[in-house]
Predict the structure.
Amino acid sequence: MREEKLAIYNKLVAKCPRFKRKGKTMPYTSANGYMFSLFNKADEIGIRFSKEVQQKYIKQFDTTIYNSYGAVMKGYVLIPENMWEDLDKLAEYLNESYDYVMTLKPK
C-alpha cells in the first residue's frame, strides 16, 4: 500500500517541472531553503501554504493541519486521499505552494 501511495506522490511532483522530489526515506520537496511538501511515514501528503491560504484550504478541503512524525507542521495542509485522484488539480496546489515559498526570505 505504501508503495502505491508513494507512487502517487512521485507522479504529483513529476507534474511540476520547476522542482524535484528529494529525500530517500522521507520524500519531500523544497525550494528557497524551505520544505513545501512532504510524504510522511503515515503515507499522507502535506502541502505548505501561507496562513491565510492554509485556513481557506482546511475549510475547502474539509481537512486539518498536517502532522508528520508526531510534529504539527505549521503552514501545512493535510491533503485528503479523495483528492489524490486529480493529480492535475493537486499539481496546481503544489505549484501554488512553490510560488509561496519563493516569496519568503531565502534560508
Notes: The helical segments are 2-14, 51-61, 87-101. DSSP finds three helices and five strands in the chain. The domain at 2-101 is CATH 3.30.1460.30 (Yope Regulator; Chain: A,). The beta strands are 28-31, 34-39, 45-48, 65-68, 71-79.
